[in-house]
Design brief:
CATH topology of one domain: Serine Threonine Protein Phosphatase 5, Tetratricopeptide repeat
CATH superfamily of one domain: Tetratricopeptide repeat domain
CATH architecture of one domain: Alpha Horseshoe
Order of helices and strands: HHHHHHHHHHHHHHHHHHHHHEE
Shape: rod-shaped
Strand order of the largest sheet: 1-2
Strand content: under 5%
C-alpha cells in the first residue's frame, strides 16, 4: 500500500484551548447537575496531572451524557486520543481509537458547531495517524468540508492538495480532479489575499503550485480535453479563459489550437498593445506572418507610448526586410520608427544596411559606389541617436568608407570632395561626396 508523506511542520494542534459552556447544559435534576460537575472535575483534574487512564472513565461519562456541557470535553478528548494513538502499536487498537476520535469530532460539530475549524482538525488528525493513502477517505473528506465552510488555514489547504496529488498517483483520482482542485484552491487563496495580507497563505499558494506542477496531472492532452468544451460554452468568461490560457502556457502547450483561441479571445475581451504584441509573437512561432503583421498594426493603434510604438514599427521593418523584396517599404517602416522615437538607432542602422544591399539598383560602378555615402550617413545618425550602439556603427562606418570612390574616380566623373550629391535609384538621398 502506498503511504501518504505529510510535509514536515504542516500540522499544528492547539491542545488545551476551550471554553466552559455550562449554560448550554440542561440538567434533569439537582442530582444530575452534581453528577455532571463531579465527573467533569475528576476527569479534568486527572487530565491536568497527565493521568489519562484515570481521566478517561470520567471523561467518557461527560462525552456520553453531557455532550454540550463544555467545549473542553472535545479539546481534552482530542488531546487524549492523540496521545493514546501515539502509544498504541496494535493495528486493531489503533483503528478503534481512530474511529473514536472521528466520532469525537462529529459530536463536537453536532453540539458545539464551528464546522470551519473542526472539520479541518478532524482531517488533519486522521491523516496524521493513518498515512495509508488508500484509507485516507475520512480525513480527505473532512478537509474538503473544512474548505467548503471557508477554512483558509495553510495546513488544511496544503494537506488537501497533497492528498489529492497522492490519490492521483495511486490511481484513485483522475487528473481532472487534480486540476480542478488546484484551480479551486488557488482561486480561494487569491480571493483571501485580495482582502488581507497573510504570509502563511503566500507560502501555501507556492506549495500548492509546486505540488500541482510536479503532479504530472496537467499534461497538454488533459488540459485540452477538460477545458475545450468549457471554453466553447463560456466564450465571454474572461476569468475562465485567462485561467485556461495560463494553464496552457505553464504546461508548455502553446502550440495547441486551444492556446491560440484563448490568447486571441483574451485580446478581444480586453484588447491592449501588449496583448496584441503577444499574439504577433505567438503567430511568428508558426511563421504565420500575415497574422503577425495584423497584430503589430493593432498594437501600434492601441499603444500610447511613442518609444513602444517605435519598436513595433521597427519590427514591421525587420519582417519586411526578411520576407519581402521591397526595400522602400522597409525604409518606410524604419522612418516611422524614427518619427516616433528619434533615439531609435537600430532603425537608422537598418536603413543603412538596405542601402548597402541595393547594388543591383545602379547601372555603373561609380553610381553603385555612391550608395555607400548614403549608408554611412545612416550609420553616423544611428550612433548619434543611440550612443550605446556607437561601436557597432563605427565598424560599419570604417568598413564602408573604405568602399567610397577614390579621388581619381571622382575627378574622372567630374566631381569634387565636399560637393552635394543625390544618390540615385529608389534611395534618392541627398548626401556629401567623399573619397576613400
Amino acid at each position: 500500500m502506498k503511504k501518504l508523506v505529510l510535509k514536515a511542520g504542516i500540522i499544528v494542534f492547539s491542545m488545551f484551548l476551550g471554553t466552559f459552556d455550562a449554560d448550554a447544559q440542561q440538567f434533569e435534576s439537582a442530582q444530575d447537575s452534581i453528577r455532571c460537575l463531579r465527573n467533569y472535575s475528576l476527569y479534568v483534574e486527572y487530565y491536568r496531572q497527565g493521568d489519562i487512564d484515570r481521566a478517561l472513565p470520567y471523561w467518557r461519562i461527560m462525552f456520553d451524557e453531557y455532550p454540550d456541557f463544555s467545549r473542553n470535553i472535545y479539546i481534552h478528548g482530542e488531546a487524549m486520543m492523540n496521545e493514546l494513538l501515539e502509544e498504541a502499536e496494535d493495528p486493531e487498537r489503533r483503528a478503534e481509537l481512530l474511529d473514536s476520535a472521528m466520532l469525537l469530532f462529529d459530536r463536537r460539530i453536532e453540539y458545539m458547531g464551528d464546522e470551519l475549524n473542526v472539520y479541518g482538525r478532524k482531517g488533519i488528525f486522521f491523516l496524521r495517524h493513518n498515512d495509508v493513502i488508500e484509507e485516507a477517505g475520512p480525513g480527505y473528506e473532512a478537509l474538503e468540508k473544512a474548505i467548503e465552510h471557508g477554512n483558509m488555514t495553510a495546513p488544511v489547504l496544503t494537506l488537501y492538495m497533497h492528498v489529492t496529488v497522492a490519490k492521483f498517483h495511486a490511481g484513485l483520482l483522475e487528473n481532472e480532479k487534480v486540476i480542478n482542485t488546484y484551480l479551486d484552491l488557488t482561486e480561494r487563496i487569491d480571493r483571501t489575499l485580495d482582502a488581507t495580507d497573510n504570509d502563511n497563505l503566500f507560502e501555501a499558494r507556492d506549495y500548492v503550485e509546486e505540488l500541482f506542477a510536479d503532479s504530472g496531472a496537467a499534461d497538454c492532452d488533459a488540459i485540452i480535453d477538460i477545458f475545450t468544451v468549457r471554453v466553447e460554452e463560456s466564450p465571454d468568461d474572461e476569468n475562465l479563459i485567462s485561467m485556461v490560457n495560463e494553464l496552457l502556457d505553464d504546461g508548455n502547450c502553446t502550440d495547441s489550437d486551444l492556446y491560440y483561441y484563448t490568447t486571441e479571445r483574451l485580446h478581444e475581451l480586453d484588447p491592449s498593445a501588449r496583448s496584441a504584441m503577444g499574439l504577433a509573437r505567438m503567430y511568428r512561432n508558426i511563421d504565420d506572418y500575415d497574422r503577425v503583421i495584423e497584430f503589430i498594426y493593432e498594437a501600434i493603434e492601441l499603444e500610447e507610448d511613442n518609444s513602444n510604438r517605435s519598436r513595433y514599427y521597427l519590427e514591421l521593418a525587420e519582417i519586411a526586410n526578411r520576407r519581402e523584396n521591397n526595400p522602400q517599404k522597409v525604409r518606410e517602416y524604419a522612418r516611422m520608427a524614427i518619427d516616433n522615437d528619434e533615439s531609435n538607432g537600430q532603425a537608422y542602422m537598418l536603413i543603412g544596411h538596405i542601402y548597402i544591399e541595393a547594388s543591383d539598383c545602379f547601372d555603373g560602378d561609380f553610381e553603385s559606389q555612391t550608395r555607400f555615402w548614403a549608408a554611412v550617413d545612416q550609420f553616423i545618425m544611428a550612433k548619434n541617436a543611440d550612443p550605446s550602439i556607437a561601436s557597432q556603427a563605427d565598424k560599419f562606418i570604417e568598413a564602408y568608407e573604405a568602399r567610397f570612390p577614390d579621388s581619381e574616380t571622382l575627378f574622372f566623373h567630374g566631381y569634387e570632395v565636399g560637393q552635394a550629391y543625390t544618390v540615385g535609384c529608389w534611395i534618392n538621398e541627398r548626401t556629401t561626396i567623399r573619397a576613400r
